[in-house]
Known about the structure:
The complex is a heterodimer.
Chain A: H1 6-28, E1 40-46, E2 49-54, E3 66-69, H2 87-93, E4 98-102, H3 115-134, E5 139-144, H4 146-157, E6 162-168, H5 180-185, H6 190-197, H7 202-211, H8 214-227, H9 232-245, H10 253-265, H11 268-271, E7 275-276, E8 279-280, E9 290-295, H12 303-306, H13 309-312, E10 318-323, H14 329-332, H15 334-351
Parallel strand pairs in A: 3-4, 3-5, 5-6, 6-9, 9-10
Antiparallel strand pairs in A: 1-2, 2-4, 7-8
Helix pairs in contact in A: 2-15, 3-4, 6-10
Chain B: H1 5-26, H2 44-65, H3 71-96, H4 102-122, H5 127-133, H6 136-150, H7 152-156, H8 159-169, H9 173-189, H10 191-195, H11 204-252, H12 259-278, H13 281-309, H14 317-354
Helix pairs in contact in B: 1-3, 2-5, 3-4, 3-12, 4-5, 4-11, 8-9, 9-11, 11-12, 11-13
Amino acid sequence: xxxxxxxxxxxxxxxxxxxxxxxxxxxxxxxxxxxxxxxxxxxxxxxxxxxxxxxxxxxxxxxxxxxxxxxxxxxxxxxxxxxxxxxxxxxxxxxxxxxxxxxxxxxxxxxxxxxxxxxxxxxxxxxxxxxxxxxxxxxxxxxxxxxxxxxxxxxxxxxxxxxxxxxxxxxxxxxxxxxxxxxxxxxxxxxxxxxxxxxxxxxxxxxxxxxxxxxxxxxxxxxxxxxxxxxxxxxxxxxxxxxxxxxxxxxxxxxxxxxxxxxxxxxxxxxxxxxxxxxxxxxxxxxxxxxxxxxxxxxxxxxxxxxxxxxxxxxxxxxxxxxxxxxxxxxxxxxxxxxxxxxxxxxxxxxxx
Amino acid sequence: xxxxxxxxxxxxxxxxxxxxxxxxxxxxxxxxxxxxxxxxxxxxxxxxxxxxxxxxxxxxxxxxxxxxxxxxxxxxxxxxxxxxxxxxxxxxxxxxxxxxxxxxxxxxxxxxxxxxxxxxxxxxxxxxxxxxxxxxxxxxxxxxxxxxxxxxxxxxxxxxxxxxxxxxxxxxxxxxxxxxxxxxxxxxxxxxxxxxxxxxxxxxxxxxxxxxxxxxxxxxxxxxxxxxxxxxxxxxxxxxxxxxxxxxxxxxxxxxxxxxxxxxxxxxxxxxxxxxxxxxxxxxxxxxxxxxxxxxxxxxxxxxxxxxxxxxxxxxxxxxxxxxxxxxxxxxxxxxxxxxxxxxxxxxxxxxxxx
Lengths: 353, 355
């Protein structure tokens, strides 16, 4: 009886050894400057928030501009991680006119910023700027993850300014128990954390994200790259992604306090009891066309937290789009480039007439 | 073909060589060993504060340490764990040739495996937490020694305590959980009350804060040990399951035939087991409690630190927070006023146009 396949084992190990030697050379010559490379111009800034306008890549871009609102967690260049896997570049090539919000890196002076400041302040000012610039009354809003929650809230408070709403991997119904973040979030004494830290350190949040898949994210990922360390393209892609994963801004204290308490713990958005500044948020105010995109294998925002949005809005024209990818795959996978970007662009173009 | 000794030695030597190569390759990225210096303090409170300082200095490093720059270091650490899994596999395979029985194997690996698990879980944690989580039994012994000195009479009378402690030292993870639970219950009934007692005299407030600091630290460490206990318990159970399953697969001739296959099987089984643990309400609650108690400890520690810094000509965190709040309120007011002005001008323009 053969307990161990010695020939195969030795071959595997010799292969690994060879790769290691070649990998040294690859690592020493790695050059990673490709993220966030699609051409854009800074058009508006306020405190640490910056609004960029991408240079259109077609002669006649969509007449209704589209504003992308990313999450406060991690950085928006995930959507432009590298030129051959850039959702942004792809959308521009499909004819959209894009703006994007860069939230920057909050420091201690930002610890008192609230969700009201982000939504009715920064987002609203960015929207106003674009509307004035384009001499129009409405724009398209595309929200990503937590940025999707903010965009949904914004659309409910200021529906008159939004032509079409697109949400991607967006948590709406926080009562779910499927994602670990949803489960853990319910037990966090966020008041104590914010009172202690002021802003919640991004790296502390990252530690929590890595615990969601401890062996895959803390071990196998690194063992896996060693197996491919002799392939410059794979190493470059890995390093780029690695840089993005750990590029985690701190979270403004009072904003994350409200986000955890009102949403994760009390699910106020769906219950209709959420208040942002002086506004009561009623999802029924959302009457514009809605495209709700979620990832089938999302371990951060489970589909069950995104899907209910369509039941809570008044929009008659609403679509649900399930993509067979994970949370990050929504932006960087080949499926994202081949299917997601064309579908979003087509939907927006059709509704922007 | 049986997994013979020569083959084991050859692959083992190869793995060792590779490990050495990786370490030398890693070279300068190794950080200086930050061993805590021995001190000659006799003052208990000074000692206490120094320990707190060390813990938090390390804890804070964690939050500044995770960056893309150390991806390479993480790869090396990943490889280190990979080698440790190999050692485990190698030893497990020796059972197939009758060199070792399953009982001896499991007993031997319980301690070592736990340390490997500790290494794995701590690699990506802040440095301060890494030190707390690494060598859990060693740390726990230190912890118990400290508390024993401080609370000797109490400890001596707790038979149940000793039994749990004995189980814990013998590597039984249930012992850790029982011990920490018992400890917490008794602590809160007795010494916890002392640390929260009102003080008298000129430095009343300072003493009260210092005592409260001890109390928050005790609670934090106690919960940390329950947390570690639950992590290691699953690790050990998974190791036992993997070993038993491996033996069953072996009977059927379906066992992983190469180390790569075994490694795949090993990490996926572990991932499954930990996902199941993390999904329980008990774990979520324990994690929440751990985070909360670490916050209470830090908050109190920061307060004591601020008190000490008050005599220096630098602003404290509390003073800065007050300033940030003032600036925030002023900025908000200015923004609102600017918006009102803009709207007024717009209305004015519209009226002029209409006129």
